[in-house]
Amino acid sequence: MSRRLLLRAALSACLLGALVCTAFAAAAPRRSATAHATAPRRTRAAARHGRTTPSRQAAEPGPLAASMAPADSSRAAWTQARALADAGRHEEALSVLRGALARDPKNTDLRWLEASVTGWNGGHAEAVHRFERLVADHPELEKDVRGDLAGERLAAGDAAGALRDLDLRVAEQPDDRDARMNRAQALARLERMKEALAAYDALLREAPDDADVMMERARVLVWLGRNGDAAATYTAVLARQPENRRARLGLAMNENWQGYHRRAAARLESLATDPEPDPEVWKTLAFARDWNGEPDRARAALDEYLTREPDDAEALDLSRRLRAEQSPSLTAVVAHADDSDRLRIRTTRMELRLPLPHQNTAELSWQRDRVRDDGGEHKPFRFGLGLETVWSEAWTTRAAIGHTELGGGDTERLGELSATWRPLERMRADAGVSHDLVLTRLSLADRIAVTTYVEGADWDLGERFTVRAAFRQRQFSDDNFAHTEALSAACRLYAERRGRISATFGGEQLHTRHDLDDGYYDPAAYLEWGPGVEGEWTPQPPFTLSGEGRLGRQHQRGSPSRAYVNGSLRAQWAIERVATLALELGRSDSDLSTAAGYQQHRWAFSATRGF
């Protein structure tokens, strides 16, 4: 065979092999080369007051993945499903997609849209699962899907997983504004407020008039306790967009956090009359009514919300709390106090609370005190009946009567009558009178009781300052008389979503008519003053820590002044469907902190069970 014939044969074989390879490649399933272009990308993570809801724009589908089903059928199904989803008809869109996927199960565009619509329909956890399966089957789609997957993780409550994906997405696509917006939201959900604020500030530097970013930033300001700045932001948005529902709702939420519960409720009632109100309106209204002392109206608003969002964890927690407060409950208390004069008081108490119609609550109580020092011991026993009535959002009253057995056939009648008035949302005034025993061993031995008249007021002056004043008069059964005046102020130094810290400064003085040495503290004149700190922290909603401390000077007439240190700590743990447990610890060496005027260490433990 000639060299020319050999060359011709070789060329023919190469051409035949190429044709065979091309035929096999054409027959094999492959993903769409434009899957990232046809995917339902989110245009803005419009977090709807605590939840992330993806917004959508309809996109024209590009060439769909080659499969065993006709390409025109899959393309038509994608287009129809997308149009239905954009019209809010998610269930119908999912039905179309599932039918198309039954014919074309390997079509990545259809699977991507199915995962997205599942999330738009509220099934965020399922959407995450579908996106993860899509990436597992097609690793080459990981970068394209990452933004949508992160958004669904965030909406499903997995802020840490969302942030992990979003960090990668922003590193890959620094200009992806939606991913950066979602990343700021994830930081806020993880309580990294300063980082979230910086992320929103960066977005606003690029687009100062972006209302969505402004409102998300305002929510972080609320969680940081900067309510005034948040209100200014919402007001600025409403100045340009008066009908912006999210801004109106955000302003109401901010007012509620500031303590303007009635004003917030009025604004929310107006929002609830909109043709299609945001469900968050009802939840925020429920909290406003609850914090304003209106449990029945709070329950009604919460029921409206739960019909729309039955699985919302925050709403379900409020529902359980309202149900517990409106149900009978039993509280057991054990307390112990140890004074530096060797006076020891051990108290055991039981309280049964019974909600009644028309905003009334009855209380039955039983208490045993063991009071002893080096001179002896007394064990007074008491029981009582009380009634608390909420007359309106401004007025609440309490009345109680009691009877105590002192031993040796001696008895004493006890009682209390008090009222609380809230003329303004951030002002409270209290007045009352009570008759009780003086719990020291010497006073019990002499059967000394005291009638106390109390007037007090709290007033929040703006966003950070609170002023408190109190006046007490005591009339003792041994014909002695004493009066006490106290004035203090608090300034909030730090606040975040789960905690706050305030600095305090105050003083208190006591004057007594006679120094009788009947077992209670009765100097001619006494004054104490000094700075302090108080705070509260909720690491997780069922568990709360609170405490206060104070350091100052105290002076009794005729004696040199000296320093004092008072401190207390309280931990509360609400165990769902079991009980609410509380532990209190305290120590003090202020002469006013105990009946006898000595240093004291104390603790108390309580457990409350609802029925």
What's the arrangement of secondary structure elements?
Layout: H1 3-27, H2 35-38, E1 42-47, E2 52-56, H3 71-86, H4 90-103, H5 108-120, H6 124-137, H7 142-155, H8 159-172, H9 177-189, H10 193-206, H11 211-223, H12 227-240, H13 245-258, H14 261-272, H15 280-291, H16 295-308, H17 313-325, E3 329-339, E4 344-356, E5 360-373, E6 376-378, E7 381-390, E8 395-407, E9 410-424, E10 427-437, H18 441-445, E11 449-461, E12 465-476, E13 481-496, E14 499-512, E15 525-540, E16 543-556, E17 562-575, E18 579-588, E19 600-610
Antiparallel strand pairs: 1-2, 3-4, 3-19, 4-5, 5-6, 5-7, 7-8, 8-9, 9-10, 10-11, 11-12, 12-13, 13-14, 14-15, 15-16, 16-17, 17-18, 18-19
Helix pairs in contact: 3-4, 3-5, 4-5, 5-6, 6-7, 7-8, 7-9, 8-9, 9-10, 10-11, 11-12, 11-13, 12-13, 13-14, 13-15, 14-15, 15-16, 16-17
Concise synopsis of the structure shown:
This protein is α+β, with helices and mostly antiparallel strands and 611 residues long.
CATH superfamily caption of the domain at 354-610: monomeric porin ompg
What fold name stands as the CATH topology of the domain at 354-610? Porin
Helical residue percent? Answer: 25-40%
Strand content: 35-45%
Q: How many E-type strands?
A: 19
Mean pLDDT score, rounded? 85
Please describe the biggest sheet, giving its number of strands, its sense, and whether it closes into a barrel. 16 strands, antiparallel, barrel
Dominant shape: elongated
N-C termini distance? 104 Å
Second rung of CATH, namely the architecture of the domain at 354-610 = Beta Barrel
Uncertain residue segments: 1-8, 13-39, 41-71
Total number of helices: 18
The oligomeric state of the chains shown is: single chain
Please tell me how large the radius of gyration is.
34 Å
Strand order of the largest sheet: 3-4-5-7-8-9-10-11-12-13-14-15-16-17-18-19
CATH class type of the domain at 354-610: Mainly Beta
Helix/strand structural class: alpha+beta
Organism: Eiseniibacteriota bacterium
Signal peptide: 1-25
Keywords: Repeat, Signal, TPR repeat
Region (Disordered): 31-70
